Amino acid sequence: MSSSAGTVRLTMAQAVVRYLANQFIEIDGDKVRLCGGGLAIFGHGNVTCLGEALYAHREDLPVWRGQNEQSMAMAAVAYAKQKLRQRFLFVTASAGPGTTNMLTSAAIAHTNRLPMLMLCGDAFMTRLPDPVLQQVEHFNNPTMSVNEAFKSVSRYWDRITHPAQVIQSLPAAIATMLDPADCGPAFLGLPQDVQGWAYDYPEAFFEPCIHRIRRQSPDLRDINDASAVLKKAERPLVIAGGGVQYSRASGELAAFAEKHNIPVVETIAGRANMTFDHPLNIGPIGVTGSNSANAIAAQADVILAIGTRLQDFTTGSWTVFGADARIISLNAARHDASKHMSLPVVGDAKTAIGLLDEALGDYRGPQSWIAGAAEEREKWAAYVADNIRPGNRPMSYAQVIGAVNELCDPRDRIVTAAGGLPAEVTANWKTKSIGTVDVEFGFSCMGYEISGGWGARIAQSESEPDKDTIIFVGDGSYLMLNSDIYSSVLTAKKLIIVVCDNGGFAVINKLQNNTGNTSFNNLIKDCNIEGEPFAVDFEAHARSMGAAAETVESIADLKDAFGRAKASERTYVITLKVDAFDGWTNEGHAWWEVGLPEVSESENVRNARTDWESGRDRQRKGV
Questions:
Q1: Within the chain, which residue ranges are assigned CATH 3.40.50.970?
Q2: pLDDT of 346 higher than 60
Q3: Model pTM?
Q4: CA-based, 20 to 30 A from 370: which of 6, 9, 79, 248?
């Protein structure tokens, strides 16, 4: 590593790492390193050069070893979410299967607009040793590798074929990850030979750089148009999405709603924008929502959607709103603001809420509208209170959620993902503190729970080390990805994991049955097996990875076990069985479009299709 006037000679890999180590961000007046470190599984495609460079900077950029490339990248996704997109982790994998394992995680980050930097090995640029180990050859295009697969799940994609290219590529990748409108994962393919090639880099490239996330101010003409529509509203409604939290605008949202007397409903990503007891929080909206939110959404004449892309689970496949309701979409991303013939307001949520507040003047929603919304909210609260009550039916997700909700600290973080738990947590969880709920339902990815919990805990340990990360996971997701229990023990990042065992993929079995189909290949007992079905001993499995664990059989026992888990200094797994058929929250669901057979030999399937299609009568057609 030599230097001359104004330049320093480094390998490409060394330059990448040194550059990352010198990037900072200003958060609330404090300067912190933009990249919080990285997650790595080394192989021949990244250990010799990138590994050498990372070792030299291990104090500035701590590296945690993952157990599976997909799961470690999921941890990076959860870290970024916990850090409100202001900081990120890099993930690095070898060439070939190590890299392709991360495709699903990249899709989660892309769908949820979250930053993550992927540094992945690639085939040799010289092609002298071709074909090499783990290379997928394309006979008519030798420039193509498996890394091209990431183009569809990356916001920024580049292959570094010469060391000088990082001078342009790294700043571009970071600018993408910090852009509120274009935020998402960045992918850099690093050919194995180029990683070790040296170049005389300008020293100025490595000078410390302080970043700030831009707050784009909306066009005042759009603000005026939006305020003109809102001022005429007799039944206004705010839908608050995850973008409210990423803008750190939860306080502004509450103040806006209070001043202008407008009820607020939350998307899944925006589930902790308001505490459950705020009088204007009418509940979660959509397919996994609440009767209260869906009822007032159907009556609203003007809907202000803030920081949400209006995904089908939010809109009930566009059946939850009245046909004549006017939608105003306030979003940092033009693409999201302009959907569905909305009146677009493109800009930062915090800035735009302030401008819209000013433009609205003394406008207030009618008190009769607020009173009706509050009445719906009270009816839903009564339903949830009974729904989580132990003994009201066989052991259920809702009872488990209610017990943990009762005992957790207001600042504990809740993590769950696809399967049945997103709907159950969204409907039944009472948010005690802003920004404490992570339900991965953008890409709806099973397996995120434990890995995401580990990433969230890494982030949480930096700011709130005395609080817990609590994971709700079903047996199906647990069996998909569980090795980060071991990661959490090794890194002393304690998790509390509640495993709800309902004997398979029970929520899809529920959908199967609800659409007239016979249970098939979802519950373990209905699969193609040649032996007696048996339950996995999750307690013993978790213990084998170093966690403390126990199995309980009642809600009272769960509460006692949760107390022991809170007192524990290491990851604690509590497992219990829940009912696969009668243990569901049956209220609050909006219609959701799924494909059903037009023709079938089954009368039940034919009847289900007729019934299901009747919901389409309420579907907005393109507006």
A1: 3-211, 388-577
A2: yes
A3: 0.96
A4: 248
